[in-house]
Write a structure and sequence with these properties.
This protein is mainly alpha-helical. It is built from 8 helices and 6 strands, in the order E-E-H-E-H-H-H-H-E-E-H-H-H-E. The strands form 3 sheets. It has a two-stranded antiparallel ribbon with strand order 1-2. It has a two-stranded antiparallel sheet with strand order 3-6. Bound molecules: iron/sulfur cluster (SF4). Iron/sulfur cluster binds next to loops.
Length: 214
């Protein structure tokens, strides 16, 4: 297992990032997931059902994104490899995001030994209310597109596009088979993590919560 140190843009010290499982393994899991997803979407298309998502709409990038520890690791590794200019603007957005979410992250830390699922639900609702943009959202595009988490890869709507901007996540109509493909891919990542002793919980993509033991 390798680790990288990255200076925290809010000035509160260095973030130590463990990369696990190996980057190449994660990329392979993402490739498998994308292939499965394509098959599922083709089946829907054959029935005349297509996502209503539109280019330039980033409504879903204003929700709290949950990821596995491995996904957070691969995203972090990708960031460290970006050219300096891209890194600087991303660091500025990240600093803003850390400021905007300070109270929510504090609440998450305080409940470290509690019911993470319930707290996350509460915080996700608060996050959505504020429409906080994902710090990886750069002029309407995802700066970590190649390694974006499964949650982002599988987020499609078949409702009116405006509904995504207005309604809480649960109201937006989704494709059931896409959700099933998501959970199957997530299980594959959890299995990979378990092989090397990484806990199976989900984490915020950008959270200070420390992974616990399996
Ligand atoms: S990681 Fe990319 S796709 Fe996912 S919410 Fe952030 S900007 Fe959007």
């Amino acid at each position: 297992m390798s680790a990288m140190a990255h200076e925290n843009p809010d000035g509160s010290g260095a973030i130590e990032i463990e990369l696990h499982p190996p980057y190449a393994t994660m990329l392979e899991l993402y490739r498998d997931s994308d292939r499965n997803l394509e098959i599922v979407l083709d089946r829907y298309a054959a029935e005349g059902i297509k996502p209503t998502c539109q280019r330039g709409c980033a409504a879903c990038c204003h929700q709290l994104v949950m990821a596995t520890a491995a996904e957070a690791g691969i995203a972090a590794g990708h960031l460290l490899e970006l050219p300096d200019g891209d890194r600087q603007s991303l660091d500025a957005r990240l600093a803003l995001w850390l400021e905007d979410t300070a109270d929510l992250r504090r609440r998450l830390q305080e409940s470290a030994d509690g019911d993470l699922e319930a707290v996350t639900e509460e915080l996700a609702a608060a996050y959505w209310q504020r429409r906080i943009a994902c710090p990886f959202l750069a002029e309407g595009n995802c700066a970590i597109y190649a390694v974006r988490p499964l949650a982002c890869r599988h987020h499609f709507s078949v409702s009116e596009p405006d509904l995504c901007r207005l309604a809480p996540d649960g109201v937006v109509e989704r494709m059931v088979a896409v959700e099933e493909a998501f959970f199957a891919s997530q299980d594959a990542i959890f299995e990979e993590q378990a092989e090397i002793g990484i806990f199976p919980e989900l984490v915020w993509l950008l959270s200070a919560r420390e992974p616990g033991p399996v």
